[in-house]
Specification:
Strand content of chain A: under 5%
Mean pLDDT of chain B: 67
Low-confidence stretches of chain B: 1-11, 25-46, 91-117, 129-147
Number of strands of chain B: 11
Radius of gyration of chain B: 24 Å
Distance between the termini of chain B: 43 Å
Strand content of chain B: 15-25%
Helix content of chain B: 25-40%
Structural class of chain B: alpha+beta
Distance between the termini of chain A: 12 Å
Shape of chain B: globular
Low-confidence stretches of chain A: none
CATH architecture of chain A: Orthogonal Bundle
Oligomer: heterodimer
Order of helices and strands of chain B: HHHHEEEEEEEEEEE
Number of helices of chain B: 4
CATH topology of chain A: Farnesyl Diphosphate Synthase
Number of helices of chain A: 16
Strand order of the largest sheet of chain A: 1-2
Mean pLDDT of chain A: 92
């Protein structure tokens, strides 16, 4: 199963990269715009989002060529957000290499991110010419909606960090991760794939549930991976803790901490990131271990993945067996084995 | 788009040393994979006895919590789209209803050492499994009310279509959607989404309001001879202003929110 996932991600990832390359502009100013703009799309990423889009479209009967423009648009939008996320988080590594703002400075990186946002629309305009205005505009509207959700989710999380909010419930986290992660990572790609595959005939609501369960499990597992030393991960270890990211781990640890521990966490995250020391990270890690937050969070992720499989059966169950159907089904366990 | 800010490099960053192993050690996934290899395909009624009751309960609670959350979000999105279609512009009122819908259930958590993905999906399937009625003789027996889940009932009353939905917060509350009785010829559609947080919840509907605050409607819950079945009665006068009216369902004594009502009045 894991080779099916890896092979499909590789294949659809290559297809998407080739499509994106067609849209990457060149010319003046190359060094200060078009080269920085092309950097993230050319780095090796998982390509999960565009692969979900293509696989869903094909599972419902479309061709790869039908879906590839939308897949490219999704990945371009994702990269645009990564550029800005890395600045907002103060991250130094992305996919194993320095982040764009570390390489080129914040002003140029912001500009390149803005350009990537605009560039992500071009493949969707081409959709209109090929699918017709009705379906083409529906896909455009979906993209506009997902961009708003992602921005809202980012604003929620950044607001928590800015206001040093730590007293959060699991549903607060789910609300944030639904907007920030799930819509772009899993909900939108599967909805657009279904739109393309069914030529707009399918009810798209069930994909919200499926995408939410899968995307939330994916994000929770991503947060767990940030604690583990793994060269494939590509980001700095414990970067999320340094940044004060309100992961389910941190939320659980805070909720179960003593009054003194909560006060210490609050003081720690009130300080700017550059003032947080190794012993601060060690304290947070020891609190997470003592409160068994990793076990709780891992259990939560598995529960969500199980719910995703349940939704998968109701959406895709009647489709004929295919590699694409098997790929989508396999994602629920792949997120824990990647 | 992001504003221009300056970044300052930290003097120290944690860095990974090159790993001295070739594969990550992830205990849970190893166990999942070995469980997948060992177990045959199981039915939803046949959860592996290796899963303790506490694990099942914790998983069930997490899934219910997440499920209730996403259903609230979907409904809020539908309500928002419906209001926008009818020209509602008061974002404050919209946000208040969304916040009401987004109230979470209390999650019961237990710490465990090990989980299995396939077994968890079986637990999830078992949550949705309806008990099969037994019995002999003629007729089609009605299934007993589902507990700890959402039950919806579509019907018609007074010329309007009605949708009554009941989500039980826990397995102690029988999920029996109230009957909706509509009086008046102008009603087009009535939707009730009832989510009481406890068995002691006594529903009460405040005024249903239109985007134009000059217009409102009343609605009232009544008991019937069946202690499990409530009735929501809505009277719509002939001259009622058209559009969509919405309101919160609250507990009559604590004012704790527990659902929403919406009524669409025709032109």
């Amino acid at each position: 199963m894991s080779s099916l996932i890896a092979d499909t991600l590789e294949e659809y990832g290559s297809t998407t990269r080739a499509a994106m390359a067609d849209y990457l502009p060149s010319g003046y100013p190359a060094r200060h715009l078009y080269e920085p703009l092309a950097d993230y799309p050319q780095r090796a990423g998982k390509m999960m989002r565009p692969s979900i889009c293509i696989a869903t479209a094909r599972a419902f009967g479309a061709s790869r060529a039908d879906a590839v423009r939308s897949a490219a648009a999704i990945e371009l939008l994702h990269n645009a957000m990564l550029v800005h996320d890395d600045i907002q988080d103060g991250s130094e590594l992305r996919r194993g290499r320095p982040t764009l703002h570390v390489l080129h400075g914040v002003p140029l990186a912001i500009n390149a991110g803005d350009a990537l946002f605009l560039l992500s629309l071009r493949p969707l305009f081409d959709n209109v010419g090929i699918f017709g205005s009705l379906l083409g505009l529906r896909i455009l509207r979906e993209m506009e909606q997902v961009a708003w959700h992602s921005l809202e989710g980012q604003a929620i999380e950044l607001g928590w960090i800015r206001e040093n909010v730590l007293d959060l419930e699991d549903t607060d986290y789910l609300n944030m991760v639904l907007r920030k992660t799930c819509w772009l990572a899993t909900i939108h790609p599967s909805r657009v794939g279904a739109l393309i595959g069914s030529r707009g005939a399918l009810d798209l609501e069930p994909f919200i549930r499926f995408g939410f369960y899968l995307g939330a499990a994916f994000q929770i597992q991503d947060d767990l991976l940030n604690l583990a030393p793994d060269p494939r991960y590509g980001k700095e270890m414990n970067g999320d803790l340094l940044e004060g990211k309100r992961s389910l781990l941190l939320i659980h640890a805070y909720r179960h901490g003593s009054r003194a521990e909560r006060a210490r966490l609050s003081r720690l995250f009130r300080r700017p990131r550059e003032q947080r020391k190794d012993e601060d990270v060690a304290f947070v890690l020891s609190l997470i271990a003592e409160r068994q937050s990793v076990d709780y969070v891992r259990q939560f992720a598995h529960a969500l993945a199980g719910a995703a499989l349940h939704q998968f059966a109701s959406i895709y169950g009647d489709l004929p067996a295919s590699r694409d159907k098997e790929f989508i089904h396999g994602l629920a366990s792949w997120i824990f084995n990647r | 788009m992001a504003k221009t800010t300056s970044t300052r490099r930290t003097s120290k960053r944690l860095r990974r040393n090159d790993p001295d192993r070739e594969a990550p050690h992830r205990r849970a996934t190893r166990i999942m994979l070995s469980a997948n290899n060992q177990s045959d395909k199981k039915t939803s009624d046949d959860v592996d006895p290796r899963v303790s009751a506490s694990v099942q309960h914790a998983i069930s609670s997490m899934v219910r919590q997440s499920s209730a959350f996403i259903e609230n979000q979907i409904r809020a999105g539908q309500d928002a789209a419906e209001r926008m279609r009818h020209g509602m512009t008061k974002t404050g009122q919209l946000n208040a209803n969304i916040n009401t819908l987004a109230e979470s259930l209390v999650a019961v958590t237990r710490d465990i050492g090990v989980t299995w993905l396939e077994l968890i999906s079986m637990i999830v399937r078992s949550i949705d499994t309806q008990p099969q009625p037994g019995g002999s003789g003629g007729g089609i027996p009605q299934p007993p009310p589902r507990r700890g889940s959402t039950v919806t009932h579509n019907a018609k009353s007074g010329g309007a279509t009605t949708l009554s939905s009941f989500t039980a917060a826990d397995s102690e509350i029988p999920a029996v959607p109230p009957r909706i009785v509509v009086k008046g010829a102008k009603a087009k559609h009535v939707a009730l989404d009832l989510r009481p947080s406890s068995a002691r919840f006594v529903p009460h509907v405040r005024h249903l309001v239109h985007s134009n605050p000059k217009h409102s409607l009343s609605a009232k819950f009544s008991k019937t001879s069946d202690p499990l079945r409530l009735v929501l009665v809505i009277e719509i006068p002939d001259g009622q202003h058209p559009g969509t009216y919405t309101g919160a369902v609250v507990d009559s004594s604590s004012n704790e929110p527990g659902g929403t009502v919406s009524v669409t009045v025709a032109e």
